[in-house]
């Protein structure tokens, strides 16, 4: 029997907020998997091989919330457990997961995303039009978030002009969790009333397809539809915006690479994967062990909480040569920026397409941007990104995409 | 050489297709589909790269 490796890291603590990469390096140093007593006690799965191994077999872990022996809500994908809402399909286990995942996967498949490409092009052009004459803008809330939100709302079949109503609270949820409450509650209410209306009078959108979905045990409930739609929004909006912002910040003083990204499709593809690896918008998510099973040389026990560290895995020198160096032609690049196992990001195809479209249109139209100020999220153990990223640039001209 | 993808582990990262499009396609859900039968020698290196790029280690190669 191996000794239990331990490490003293509080993933919600000040140190982790200030020096996350150092803390993740320390976790990897302690071993592939180590136990911390902080936050009620949980495993930290920090090395690449251990993350893959631990998430490979869906029977060994659960993401559902449950009441523990003291009647307290436990489990779920965050540490500590978040009581207010359920993410779907993220916080469901097979067999229920099968139906939930299937109900959204088709809308986000490579084929569906390809058909959506003209819409992505259009919203990107439109959003850049709105900021290009200004000379200064917050890339996150004036480009990254609105493009992603509008495309997602279009796909869902919700009014795209309401993008701010949804995108601002979701941005706050990541950027400054404490102040997001009222806006998120308003989204939940709006979704509930919209679902009631659309069940009575269906239109043509993903939300209508979800409402009409028959699961193995009966029709999809309104609550399920709300939780699925909310997860699509939270999973998509700021993660993609943060990826874009981080990439453009890194590229700002590299004109040769910018040119190559515009001209070379294959380079754009490998670069996208490298930006995903390096920036890792999804820092990590949690699971609960459903059985006793080993990950690397440590023994999980049924009921143990496990924090799977995607960014740490993506910066593991055992998997990636010089992980702290951005190499836009890196391959193979087995990053786990989208997670791993059955809950791996279902929107990855859409995320890649939106990212690549915005990157190219932005680099083409805003050629001399400079990041003059930026602020990273305060909350860091689930997502990495930017509260804001102010760019200054020579004002350009609209291409009047509003005449659609 | 033969290549196969274990559907139990493939979750649609799409990295095989990205790295070796001539050996791995994607189905409608974005799950990998490997070239059937004997892999021509000209594609073997590509097949290895595609297989190594799978974060799920779902692809096996039979030499």
TrEMBL record, chain A:
Protein name: Unannotated protein
Sample GO molecular function, one term: heme binding
Homology family: Belongs to the cytochrome P450 family.
Any matching Pfam family: p450
Cited PANTHER family: P450, PUTATIVE (EUROFUNG)-RELATED
Matching InterPro entries: Cyt_P450, Cyt_P450_B, Cyt_P450_CS, Cyt_P450_sf
From TrEMBL, chain B:
GO molecular function: iron-sulfur cluster binding; metal ion binding
One family name in Pfam for this protein: Fer4_15
InterPro entries: Fe-S_cluster_ET (IPR051269)
Alphabetical UniProt keywords: Electron transport, Iron, Iron-sulfur, Metal-binding, Transport
Metal-binding listed as a keyword: yes
PANTHER family linked: FERREDOXIN
Protein name: Unannotated protein
Organism of provenance: freshwater metagenome
The organism's taxonomic lineage, starting at the top: unclassified sequences, metagenomes, ecological metagenomes
């Amino acid at each position: 029997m191996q000794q239990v490796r331990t490490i003293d890291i509080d993933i919600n603590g000040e140190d982790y907020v200030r020096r996350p990469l150092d803390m993740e390096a320390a976790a990897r140093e302690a071993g592939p998997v180590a136990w911390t007593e902080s936050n009620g006690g949980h495993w930290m799965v920090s090395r690449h091989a251990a993350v893959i191994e631990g998430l490979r077999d869906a029977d060994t872990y659960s993401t559902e919330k449950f009441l523990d022996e003291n009647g307290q809500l436990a489990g779920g994908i965050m540490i500590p457990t978040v009581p207010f809402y359920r993410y779907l399909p993220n916080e469901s286990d097979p067999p229920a997961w099968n139906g939930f995942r299937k109900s959204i996967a088709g809308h986000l498949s490579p084929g569906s995303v390809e058909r959506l490409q003209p819409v992505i092009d259009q919203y990107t052009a439109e959003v850049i039009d709105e900021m290009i004459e200004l000379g200064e803008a917050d890339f996150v809330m004036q480009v990254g978030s609105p493009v992603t939100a509008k495309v997602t709302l279009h796909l869902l079949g919700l009014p795209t002009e309401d993008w701010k109503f949804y995108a601002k609270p979701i941005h706050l949820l990541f950027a400054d969790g404490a102040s997001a409450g009222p806006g998120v509650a308003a989204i939940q209410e709006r979704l509930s009333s919209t679902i009631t209306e659309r069940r009575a009078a269906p239109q043509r959108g993903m939300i209508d397809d979800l409402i009409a979905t028959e699961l193995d045990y009966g029709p999809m409930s309104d609550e399920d539809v709300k939780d699925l739609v909310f997860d699509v929004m939270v999973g998509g909006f700021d993660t993609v915006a943060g990826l874009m912002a981080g990439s453009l910040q890194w590229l700002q003083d590299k004109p040769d690479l910018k040119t190559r990204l515009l001209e070379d499709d294959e380079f754009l593809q490998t670069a996208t994967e490298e930006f995903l690896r390096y920036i890792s918008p999804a820092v990590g998510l949690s699971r609960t062990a459903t059985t006793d099973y080993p990950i690397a040389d440590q023994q999980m026990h049924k009921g143990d909480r496990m924090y799977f560290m995607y960014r740490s895995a993506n910066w593991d020198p055992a998997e990636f040569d010089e992980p702290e160096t951005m190499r836009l032609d890196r391959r193979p690049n087995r990053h786990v920026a989208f997670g791993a196992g059955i809950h791996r990001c279902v929107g990855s195809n859409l995320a890649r397409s939106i990212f690549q479209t915005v990157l190219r249109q932005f680099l083409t139209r805003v050629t001399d941007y400079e990041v003059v100020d930026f602020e990273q999220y305060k909350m860091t153990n689930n997502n990495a990104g930017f509260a804001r990223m102010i760019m200054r640039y020579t004002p350009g001209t609209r291409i009047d995409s509003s005449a659609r | 050489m033969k290549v196969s993808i274990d559907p139990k582990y493939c979750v649609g990262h799409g990295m095989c297709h990205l790295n070796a499009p001539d050996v791995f396609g994607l189905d409608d859900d974005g799950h990998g589909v490997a070239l059937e039968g004997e892999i021509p020698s000209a594609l073997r290196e590509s097949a290895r790269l595609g297989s190594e790029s799978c974060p799920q280690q779902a692809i096996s190669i039979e030499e």
